[in-house]
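To the structural biology subgroup,

Please find below the input and predicted structure for PutativeDNA-binding protein, which we are adding to the shared reference set this quarter. The sequence is reproduced verbatim from the submission form. If anyone notices a discrepancy with their own records, reply to this email rather than editing the shared folder directly, so we keep one authoritative version.
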Amino acid sequence: MAKDTEKLIRQLSLISYLMAERRPVTALEIRRDVEGYSGMNEDAFARRFYADRAELESLGIQLTIERPGDGTAEQEHYSLRSENFHLPPIAFTDDELASLQLALNLLDGEFAYAEPLRLALQQLSWGRPSPLGGGGRGLGIGTVGLGVTAQVHGRDPSQRLAKVESAIFRNKTITFEYHSIHRDTVEPRKVDPYHLLFRGGQFYLLGRDHERDELRVFRLSRIRDKVAYATKAEHDFRRPVDFDPRPYGDRADWQMAESVGTARIRIAERIGWQVQRAHGRQGTFAPADGDPAVPPAVDDDGVIRGDVVFTTEYGVTRSLLGWVMRIGEHAEILEPADLREEYERRVALVRERHDGAFPVAAGHPFVLEEEPGVTAPATRDGVIRPERFARLVTLASILIHAGRQHERLEVEELTSRLNVSEPELRDDINVLNVVNFGGGSYVLYAEVTDDGHVEVDNEPYSDHFARPARLLPVEAKALVAAVDLIGDHLPEGTLGTVRAKVVAALGEDPLEHGLQVAHGGGDDRDLARLISGAIMDRQLIELDYYKPNEDEFVKRRVEPYALINGREGWYVAVFDPMREDVRHFRLDRIRSAEVQEDTFERRPEVDPAADVAGWPRTGQLPASRSARVWVSPERARWERERRTILEELEDGALVTEIAFAGVDWLVREVLTEIGDLVVLEPQDARDAVRDAAAGIAG
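Predicted structure (tokenized):
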């Protein structure tokens, strides 16, 4: 029998034994009565028992140890309280369970943590219809679409994520080769991994860099080759107790480095409402004019009326300058003076490079050389798989329940619920069949029949696995990350209450222990609930919508079909009767929305989520034109990660291709790069960038 299997039998038998005894027991009793320990000598037992206790503790299962007054280890007494193993009851409503089922359907196969999420939902739905199948009380899949699902693609990237996740859980120092984008070099790194952050479609690792002895942020897609453990020790470090990952999820792009200053930026009333909504967590706002001692006039949702001054710290200067330039004439940097001067220089550079002919060095066509393993299909070992311990506990609860109900379970249904192969299921059942709680009393007995069913003894000898177990750390992280990824964008907006109940039951927020999903944009929960209600009730909505590319407001009376997330935020997919076509409106650009009394019939030909794997996931909108764009040598390595490269030039610059549907969008895309992108053709787009820069310069 494999050592890992022996360990699982010992640990499960230890749990069952301690809970069956219902009294503190000595190490000598454990050695004598628990499956897997009795054949060991004293030293081997001491090592194995200590290691098993430590691993159970890391899984959130804490044994109580009572020590005698004289401190002799031989007389220590051990027990396991029910609350340290069983999950406290959580009173989910039917709608909350339906939302969980819909979340799993949306994320299954698309979410790096889908397997531990599946087990978490099985535990949470104990005694209720399983959320791992069924339709979810009419909450249709078609009402929500996910373009961004916290997934990694390719064999090697997925294996790196799995290794990093394991290292965070086990407090193991890791080593890897890393492409430092700022220095354009590949360097060895040795890191104590603290936390994973999913932001803008990418996973980032937060950890202590040994060489620099400070906290650093590493983008996982820039890790080269394999991630390895630095030592063979069981644990290498302890995460600092004062480490707080939350601020990293709320930061703007210009705050993803140590602060170098504080900027004051005047924002025009025309877009002030939008900036306040989107960046309320990244700075403060105050009226640009008037008496500071007088409370500002605000709208019903707390937005300050009139021009405002946005005060924000920044660490990445070019990101802040790019954000301001994209806004254009509606933003003005007030201070510091050196930031304002650099902005003016960059605006002049954009204008100069688009006025008249722009010389380009000689070059050659770019040939893509893909990194081995990047595009290879991900293997099951390369996704985040839960500990087998969790799967066995979940399976035990399913089998005991079936035995009590005199049910025969279909093998195919079980393998689907647990996402395992039939051989894996058979192995798991064989392990559970030898788990006992002392004296030859076994937890359960089950067998796979020739006709594809699992039969369970209808008089199980133990009920300790007949209640849902506490969520293991990776299960809890998966559940909360899934909730945070989707937010209150499901019909009836019930995931927010699910999250609150789960955190209350666990006694802590799993976000603090290794995985955080950053929220893009501002708080759109109220708007999402309003639109979701209209979708479910099939009511028309009237939108007051800001189109930044054209700098205009439009009103649309539309039929809402679905909420869809993308790389830049959440959208409502609608059918616009005026244009007789499907349109997508970004929630953070909707100034106001009003549900109409008029209803509509869903059009069978409309599939609002048809494009979910297209532009929402890639960020590349359907386009009818393309532009040839020069990229400066200083910015070339960043653009290689984002763009389609056409040519490599002798001076280190690139020529890239950017597809676009409207010139106004292309202009703002170029302005964001503050002079490091230059449109070569078409001429009308080149002229439009020049004119936009001239308008900003005034």
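Summary notes: The first strand starts at residue 25 and ends at 26. The two ends are 78 Å apart (CA to CA).

Regards,
Lab coordination
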